[in-house]
Amino acid sequence: MQPLANADGEKINWVNYKTGNRFIQVKMDANEQSAVFSITINCPDESARQQYFNQFLAQKYFFEQETGRDWMWQPSTTDGFLKPVASISKTLTGVSIFNKEHWPSLIVFFKQSIIAFDAFWQMARYGFEEM
Asked: Residue ranges per domain, the chain?
């Protein structure tokens, strides 16, 4: 994904996407059964984590305009280390990272997801700076 610029036309490291907010992370995971693209809110303070999630909810219309409507919105869940987080994610099932024939589908899924999220984030990030 290196050749593509972000929505603002700037060079960006897509695999290690930086939101500029230490509590909001973009994650791309694939295993032998599925692929998941997620936005994780990992603020240790529950009240602040809910505020971040509510800020995303307030912009849900614009989020879905850029990224589509097939997202799972979880205000309270846990990460891989059982730490409490909030998450917005979508999953591609029936693919395996270990099957080379599935790689084109995985690349398209992650590429479309990150580019769409970036288009949203370039407009929405300013609403999260004041938090």
From this structure: 24-129
